From TrEMBL:
Chain intervals for the UniProt region annotation (Disordered): 1-35
PROSITE patterns: RENAL_DIPEPTIDASE_2
Protein name: Dipeptidase
Basic and acidic residues biased stretches: 1-10
Species assigned in the record: Streptomyces plumbiresistens
Coiled coil residues, start to end: none
Superkingdom: Bacteria
InterPro entries reported in the protein's UniProt record: Metal_Hydrolase, Pept_M19
Comp. bias regions, Low complexity: 22-35
Matches recorded under PANTHER family: DIPEPTIDASE, MICROSOMAL DIPEPTIDASE
């Protein structure tokens, strides 16, 4: 836990890689999402090569930004591990991340069910401490990052970015002060489920205040597993795009975390991001099943609103040919066989996550000019 004290100001975490924050502008254009610069794109793969060779060429320029990885909790159960040379006890290590052309990934801080209150807050802090310890142990492979600019810097230096989150809503302990403290320690995504203020009934008044404070800080809302009422309320209230870090198409597979077509369409209108998980339970047993979900989400929500979520080391079975973090080229090759243009693949793997993170940063800068930190208490708004 001592490492947490060293990271209260996360902007200097990357040292020479830092994307130092600029001074705040006097005003920002509205809407903020339209002010976010687009990722540059150019054809990178020779059309005459095999789909797998083309996939690797594209991923060499537009690597995967993986929306969910459960490695931190998996490592807690290992007496010893080596992520640099390779670790057979888990699905994720540096060699396999490089083979899979993964450039960034969100490391989940989710906890086992049943933890709440102070226990959930403490366990989340321990998860943060573990992630930072692991990343520092492998500086030639992994680096912490907190913004879209830092992710790009880390990639340009040949490392893999680790973003902190999502954490569960229980990690806040119903306190906006705890949310600010977690953000100061690096948290960048929060799942809006499992709390009294974010339930099947939707967001309460306090829940909406949590969301506004997340917007002010730059913490992205994760809606995977949230009720339809919560999802729609987030789309209505939030000034920044939301993520679904582990959601596929319910029309193809009726899993509770998958999104029905009406919510996929609304997510597209809100410029959110549905990150399709590589799990047999949610998408099916083959790489073709995963590609079917990606096709469907792209058709309903749009090419700018679909992403990838490996969900490796999260305790789930994976489709054939997608068993660990090295396997992304096989999925991209399948999409190329289906006629996906390279521009859409570049958005899928890298560009869409960059857009969401940049939008969150722009929204936070604008909100901090207009809004002081909230002092609201759950008893005052929901009591």
């Amino acid at each position: 836990m001592a490492d947490l004290q060293d990271d209260l100001h996360t902007a200097t975490e990357l040292g020479e890689l830092d994307d130092l924050p600029e001074s705040l502008p006097e005003s920002l254009p509205e809407p903020l999402a339209e002010s976010v610069p687009a990722e540059p794109y150019a054809l990178v793969a020779d059309p005459g090569t095999s789909p797998l060779e083309r996939a690797r060429a594209i991923l060499g320029v537009h690597p995967v930004a993986d929306g969910y990885n459960g490695l931190p909790w998996a490592l807690r159960h290992l007496p010893w591990y080596d992520l640099e040379l390779g670790e057979s006890a888990v699905d994720t290590d540096v060699p396999r991340l490089r083979e899979g052309h993964v450039g960034a990934l969100l490391w989940s801080l989710h906890l086992p069910e049943g933890l709440d209150g102070d226990r959930a807050v403490g366990a989340t802090l321990e998860q943060l401490d573990l992630v930072k310890t692991v990343v520092r142990a492998y500086p030639e492979g992994l680096r912490l990052a907190y913004t879209a600019g830092q992710i790009t810097d880390v990639r340009n230096c040949g490392r893999i970015s680790v973003l902190l989150g999502p954490a569960g809503a229980a990690a806040l302990g119903d306190s906006l002060g705890t949310l600010r403290s977690l953000h100061a320690l690096g948290l960048r995504a929060l799942t809006l489920t499992g709390a009294t203020w974010a339930s099947e009934a939707g967001l309460t008044r306090f829940g909406e205040e949590v969301l506004r404070e997340m917007n002010r800080l730059g913490v992205v809302a994760d809606l995977s597993g949230a009720s339809a009422d919560t999802v729609r309320r987030v789309f209505a209230v939030s000034k920044a795009p939301a993520l679904c870090t582990r959601s596929a198409a319910r029309a193809l597979r009726p899993h509770p975390a998958n999104l029905p077509d009406d919510l996929l369409a609304e997510l597209g209108e809100a410029k959110g991001l549905c990150m399709v998980p590589l799990t047999a339970e949610q998408t099916g047993p083959t790489v073709r099943d995963v590609a079917d979900h990606l096709d469907h989400v792209r058709r309903i929500a749009g090419a700018e609103c679909v992403g990838l979520s490996g969900t490796f080391d999260a305790g789930t079975a994976h489709p054939q040919e997608l068993g660990d973090a090295s396997c992304y080229p096989h999925l991209i090759a399948e999409l190329l066989r289906r006629g996906w243009p390279e521009s859409d693949i570049a958005l899928l793997t890298w560009g869409n996550v960059q857009r969401v993170l940049r939008s969150a940063d722009f929204t936070a800068r604008a909100a901090q000019l207009r809004r002081e930190p909230s002092t609201a208490k759950i008893a005052d708004l929901d009591g």
